[in-house]
Amino acid sequence: MSLYYVQKLIYTLNRDPNVVAQFQTDMDGVLKEYTLTDEEKHAIRKPDIGLLYVMGVNGQLLMHYAALMDYEWDEYIQAMKNGLEEHGQVRAGLYLRTGGGAV
Amino acid sequence: MSLVFAGVCSHAPGITGRADRAEPDLKDGLYASFDRMRDAIKEAGAETLVVVAAEHFANFFMDNMPAYCIGMADDYQGPIEDEEWLGIKRRTIPGNPDLSHRLIKDIMQDVDVSYAQEWKFDHGIMVPLHFLTPDNDMDIIPVNINCQGPPLTPLHRTWAFGKALRRAIDAAPEKIALVGTGGVSHWPATPDSGKINEPWDQSFLEKWAANDKDAMLAYTDEECYAEGGQGAFEIRTFIAIAAACEGNPGDVWFYAPIPIYAVGCTVGAMAGS
User: Fold this and answer.
1) N or C: which end of chain B has fewer CB within 10 A?
2) What is the pLDDT of chain B when averaged over all its residues?
3) Cis peptide, bond prior to residue B142, ω within 30 of zero
C-alpha cells in the first residue's frame, strides 16, 4: 500500500501540464517514477475511480483525476458508489463514507 | 486602522462549475450576496484583498505541509483546475509582495507562518475572486490554513493566527479587505457529496455571528468530522476572521444548503474594521 505516492502522482498531474502530456502518451513511463503496488497501477491505468476512492485517495485529488480521465461530475460520484459496492469500505484516509449529518 | 472590511464566504467549485444545476432562486440569492460583498469591499476603499483560504492540494502536499502559509509573489495564476470544469477562465492575479513581506514579518512575532513566492490558486480562492474581483484589478494576498491533510492546526492556534494577522494588517497603511473562505458542513467529492447538516451549520454560524470565541474553540476535529464531514475542518477560515475581529459581531447575509454545490452556501460580514 503506497497511498501517499498514488496521491502524489495525482497532485503532480494537477499541477504540471508537461507531466499530463507525458502521462497521456507514456503512462508507464510516468508510473515508473512512483512507488506503486500492482493494484494501484491497475487502478490508475484503467482508470478505476471507484477502487482509487476505496484505496483512500483524497476526494479533492480524485475528483480532478476523474475529470482528467473525462468523467463528468455525476459519473464521478457514481463511480465511487460503484467502488464501495465492488470493493467494500474505504481502506484509509479521511474520505470514507461517514454517514453523519442530515441529508 | 487599515482593515476596511472583513467577511466570509463559501468557495465550492460547484458554485461556478455547476452553477445552473441549482434552483434558480437559491443561485440568484447566493450570487446577489457575493455581489453585495464585492460592492462592500469597493465602497470601503480597499486596495488589497487578503483571502484566508483552505486549499485542496494545489500547492501544498504531505511532503512538506505548512499549517499556515502566506503568498509573497508578484502575481499568482489560477484556476489550476480545468477552466471548463470550474467555469472560470485562467488568469494572472496581481499580488503585492511588499505588503506580504510586512504582514509575514509581523505575524512571525506570534505564529511561525510559512511563505510562498509561487502559488497556483485553486477553486478555494478562484471562486471568491470570480465574484469579488471580476475585473482582476485588486492586489490579492493569499493565506492558507491546512484543512486537508491532518494533523491540522488546533483551533486555538487559528485564533492566535487571526489575531496576529489583524495586528499586522493594522500596522500597514494600506486599506485592506479580509475575507475568509471555507465551508461549514460538507462531504465534498465523496459519494455523500450534497449532504449538508443544516442544523449543525446554523449552530456554528450563530456562534460565529456572536463572535463567541469559547464556543467556537470548543469544537473538536472529531466532532467536525462526525457531524460536518471532511469539509467542516474549514471552519478554521471562519474562526480566523472572527479572531481578527475579536469582540465584534458578524452578520450572515446568506445561508442556504445547495446540494448540487455540495455545501451550505454562506456569505457574511463581520464588524470591527
Assistant:
1) N
2) 96
3) no
Largest CA distance in chain A: 45
Q: What SS3 state is found at B16?
A: helix
Q: Which site among B147, B192, B203, B260 would you substitute to test the A interface, given the most A Cβ atoms closer than 10 Å to its Cβ?
A: B192
Domains of chain A, start order: 3-87 (1.10.700.10)
What angle, rounded to 10 degrees, do the helices at B235-244 and B198-209 form?
10
Q: pLDDT of B204-218, one tens digit each? A: 999 999 999 999 999
Q: In what order do the strands lie in the sheet with B263-270?
A: B114-116, B68-71, B139-145, B48-53, B176-181, B3-9, B263-270, B250-258
- Report DSSP letters for B241-271, one per residue: HHHHTTT--EEEEEEEEEGGGTEEEEEEEES
Only one residue has cell 447538516, namely: B197
Contact residues, chain B, for A98 at CB < 8 Å:
187, 192, 225-226, 229
Q: Which tens digit of pLDDT belongs to each residue from A51-101?
A: 999 999 999 999 999 999 999 989 999 999 999 999 999 998 887 765 543
Q: Residue A58, SS3?
A: coil
Helix (H, G, I), strand (E, B) or coil at B272: coil
Give the residue extent of every domain in chain B.
3-270
* Contact between chains at B225 and A7 (C-beta distance less than 8 A): no
Q: Are strands B68-71 and B139-145 parallel, antiparallel or unpaired?
A: antiparallel
Average pLDDT estimate for B4-24: 96
- Domain B3-270 fold: Protocatechuate 4,5-dioxygenase; Chain B (3.40.830)
Cβ atoms of B182 and B238 closer than 8 Å: yes
ipTM: 0.89
Q: How many CA atoms lie within 13 A of A15 on its CB side?
A: 16
